[in-house]
Write a structure and sequence with these properties.
Strand content: 25-35%
Order of helices and strands: EHEHEEEEEHEHEHEEEEHE
Largest sheet: 6 strands, mixed
Distance between the termini: 5 Å
CATH architecture: 4-Layer Sandwich
Number of domains: 1
CATH superfamily: Endonuclease/exonuclease/phosphatase
Strand order of the largest sheet: 3-4-2-1-14-13
Radius of gyration: 19 Å
CATH class: Alpha Beta
Helix content: 10-25%
Number of helices: 6
Oligomer: single chain
Length: 284
């Protein structure tokens, strides 16, 4: 039985939440303290010819954390490029990056790697989906097709990243078509929304007798630990300093979830514009 620590994080190209300063040194220290076994990273710069300190971020993080690294380049500019990366304490048997760009304005990809954990093959897919709903649906269709074609049924799998799915409409596709469940459907979590603002707005509505609007996110029925349905919207992760939108996910198949939480407060709210997700998973 293996317990692995999984982190999913949009690192904002190694810059702080506002983009005003570099944050890779703080990121290295923060991740080092978590002792992660698998890191699913988005907005990673593989090349930066303008600032050498921001170049090859997957390699510098892998060296600092003593982890193997795989990088999938998606967006190429004149002097920079960025994409997704997987860092692993376990051997990365192979990896491939698939272009799932939906239009010319957004270059998107999914990084598919297989790692061996105690001789068990585990498929890890790092994703960063597009900003538009129709594009995300097509990208998820490509993801589902790839998994059905290349991942043997029943083998453990993790899909994590920035889904840009603030309405939580994609979760049923993963549940019904792939047997994947978001880690927070198994592990309790507190709402990470801005409570002061929410309470103030509730008081304002009461004072003005304004009908309460529908919630931004519809709850989705997912399977609980003992087979019972539970309402489990994923936590809010964006913006990191004042989380309001539910953009980031960790989906799993073949694991038991021991713990899942959003990392908030310092130093995380200063490192990136997203808050990272952390989960402890048990591989039987």
């Amino acid at each position: 039985m293996s317990v692995i620590r999984v982190v999913s994080y949009n690192i904002h190209k190694g810059r702080s939440a506002t983009g005003a300063r570099e944050s890779l040194s703080d990121l290295r220290l923060g991740l080092y303290g978590l002792h992660p076994d698998l890191l699913f990273l988005q907005e990673v710069q593989g090349r930066n010819e303008q600032r050498i300190s921001l170049n090859a971020q997957h390699e510098s993080l892998g060296a600092a954390l003593s982890m193997n690294a795989a990088y999938g380049c998606n967006a190429i500019r004149a002097q920079t490029d960025h994409g997704n990366a997987l860092l692993s304490r376990f051997p990365i048997v192979h990896h491939e990056n698939q272009d799932i760009s939906d239009h010319r304005m957004e270059q998107r990809g999914l990084l598919h790697a297989q790692v061996n954990i105690d001789d068990v093959p585990v498929h890890c897919l790092v994703v960063h989906l597009g900003l538009f709903a129709k594009g995300r649906s097509r990208q998820v269709a490509a993801l589902v097709e790839r998994i059905k074609r290349l991942v043997p049924e029943g083998e453990p799998m993790l899909i994590a990243g920035d889904f840009n799915d603030w309405n939580n409409r994609l979760a049923p596709l993963f549940v019904k078509q792939l047997g994947l469940y978001e880690v927070f459907s198994f592990a309790p979590h507190s709402d990470t929304g801005p409570k002061l603002l929410r309470n103030s707005m509730q008081r304002l509505r009461s004072g003005l007798l304004v009908p309460t609007q529908k919630p931004l996110v519809q709850n989705v029925h997912e399977l609980g630990m003992h087979g019972g349905a539970r309402l489990a919207p994923p936590p809010r992760t964006f913006p990191a300093a004042f989380p309001w939108l539910r953009l980031d996910r960790i989906y799993q198949r073949g694991f038991a979830v021991r713990k899942a939480r959003v990392l908030q407060g310092l130093p995380w709210r200063q490192i990136s514009d997203h808050a990272p997700l952390y989960a402890e998973l048990e591989l039987p």
